[in-house]
């Protein structure tokens, strides 16, 4: 009888082990599955063009508030900085930037006298900002290299273009907004695992944005 019990106990132990293993496997099956990472918008990287745009925006605010002295000072600083940007540029928008900056510069005496303000000044500044953004994107594309490390700078350039759309109004603003939104979505994928695969499409999207900017500027 004793011998019989000795042979039965290992069987019971083995059965318990098998039951415990099956229970553990069942519990593992209920664990939440990992959610695949999704691309997030690339944060804009502050650039010299953003600094110029900020100076010009502050000048417009000063003009709106009736502070002609501050407006003129801001415009002169912004124009000088934009001209410096154009001077070192090699992209297709070098001349566009020079042209829009020159047009804004001609308005400064009118701002000083009070003859120029409001929408006229705001639109001229918006066109310079758009030229700055397009020039930044064009310079990055013109290098011929990979854009995978340039998502932040591209986002900054697109945002400058986007910021100038309200002054255009109408169908131009609608068309430009659609093109820029599509490009921003594409650029956000450059930093992800599928960045290299997305790059050709992103270049085409950016090319469409630049063609639009050429028509406006």
From TrEMBL:
Keyword annotations from UniProtKB, A to Z: Signal
Name used for this protein in its record: DUF2780 domain-containing protein
Domain of life: Bacteria
Organism: Fibrella forsythiae
Signal sequence interval, chain numbering: 1-26
């Amino acid at each position: 009888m004793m011998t019989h019990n000795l042979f039965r106990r290992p069987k019971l132990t083995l059965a318990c082990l098998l039951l415990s293993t099956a229970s553990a496997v069942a519990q593992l099956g209920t664990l939440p599955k990992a959610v695949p990472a999704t691309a997030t918008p690339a944060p804009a990287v502050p650039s010299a063009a953003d600094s110029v745009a900020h100076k010009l925006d502050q000048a417009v605010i000063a003009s709106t508030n009736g502070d002609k002295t501050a407006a003129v000072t801001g415009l002169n600083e912004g124009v000088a900085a934009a001209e410096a940007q154009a001077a070192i540029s090699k992209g297709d928008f070098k001349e566009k930037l020079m042209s829009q900056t020159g047009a804004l510069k001609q308005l400064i005496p009118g701002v000083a006298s009070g003859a120029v303000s409001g929408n006229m000044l705001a639109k001229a500044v918006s066109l310079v900002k758009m030229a700055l953004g397009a020039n930044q994107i064009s310079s990055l594309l013109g290098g011929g290299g990979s854009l995978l490390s340039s998502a932040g700078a591209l986002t900054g350039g697109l945002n400058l273009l986007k910021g100038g759309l309200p002054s255009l109004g109408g169908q131009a603003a609608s068309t430009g907004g659609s093109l820029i939104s599509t490009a921003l979505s594409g650029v956000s994928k450059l930093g992800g695992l599928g960045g290299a695969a997305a790059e050709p499409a992103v270049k085409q999207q950016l090319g469409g944005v630049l063609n639009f900017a050429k028509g406006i500027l």
